[in-house]
Design a protein that fits this description.
By secondary structure, the chain is an all-alpha fold. The protein is built from twelve helices and no strands.
Length: 295
């Protein structure tokens, strides 16, 4: 990994080389040599930028496959924490920290996820990442049952939506629609069910999408008092979710009216993962530098 120590060394070397070139050109060179000095310096910084962000892009794809397809949330957390510790810049460290928070959420460690998200310097990141971070704080607070913190996060998200670039308005709106439906689950369960079907009833090749879909609908069944329907959905999540947070929550809610072994997905039923990974909970934001993935 291109870590902070290597980054500082390269920056110093580029700086020293640039200063040396400028001094030598002033003493012995010609005026047109300034263009070559500028071109060399720009090329060096472009190569450096590539070396900085390329590992992050590879990590993002790996992270997505671990949490969405392999359901190896422990390894995802380990890699994200390693990324935070070795990041060459504060901005890249903040992006890895965002992944770490998502990994902890997937792991079911909601309190640690909230602490991690709240510790991220948002001024280091573009506004679209603010949407992702605050949305995951809301998801975690919902699972923790902290209604006040959940509503506070929801208000923050509304404020962020009003400030981000127009091309990301739809991205923020998707999160808001899901979270507002969660907020009104007890008041309007039918609307909640419609929203969950809209966002999670899709066949994208990831087992995690199926887990989220079934778990979210099980909460609807629980709200309307249909224990048998709830247990069928929870049994699917338990049978196939390994240590994904939905499986942990499903075990806590399960009423044992069905046998989870009857809901195991057989190998022939599994779909290959698509080449273009996306968020489980909604769509993935894209920037020129990286594409974070998450639930």
């Amino acid at each position: 990994m291109f870590n902070r120590k290597k980054y500082i060394i390269v920056i110093v070397l580029i700086g020293v080389a640039s200063v040396a070139a400028i001094v030598l050109n002033a003493l012995f060179g010609k005026s047109e040599y300034w263009l070559w000095i500028a071109l060399v310096a720009m090329t060096a910084f472009t190569v450096l930028r590539t070396r900085m962000f390329a590992p992050l892009q590879v990590f993002g794809t790996k992270f997505t496959m671990l949490v969405d397809y392999d359901l190896d949330v422990e390894e995802a957390v380990r890699l994200a924490r390693e990324g935070v510790e070795n990041a060459p810049t504060d901005k890249i460290a903040a992006i890895y920290a965002m992944y770490l928070g998502m990994g902890l959420y997937y792991k079911g460690d909601y309190e640690a996820a909230v602490r991690t998200f709240n510790g991220i310097r948002l001024d280091r990141l573009d506004g679209v990442y603010h949407v992702l971070i605050v949305s995951f704080v809301c998801y975690a607070e919902f699972e923790l049952g902290d209604e006040a913190a959940f509503k506070e996060g929801l208000e923050r998200l509304r404020g962020i939506q009003s400030r981000i670039a127009p091309k990301y308005q739809g991205y923020a709106a998707n999160y808001l629609e899901i979270l507002e439906a969660l907020d009104k689950l007890s008041l309007d369960p039918e609307h909640y069910r419609e929203v969950m079907e809209k966002h999670f009833n899709r066949d994208d090749g990831y087992i995690s999408t199926k887990l989220i879909h079934q778990y979210r609908l099980a909460l609807y069944d629980r709200q309307v008092g249909d224990v048998e329907a709830m247990d069928k959905k929870l049994a699917f999540v338990i049978a196939n979710g390994k240590n994904h947070h939905t499986a942990l929550r499903a075990r806590a809610l399960f009423q044992n009216t069905v046998n989870p072994d009857d809901y195991v997905i057989r190998p022939a039923e599994e779909e290959p993962a698509p080449a273009d990974p996306s968020l489980i909970e909604t769509q993935t934001p894209e920037t020129d530098e990286d594409k974070p993935e998450g639930e």
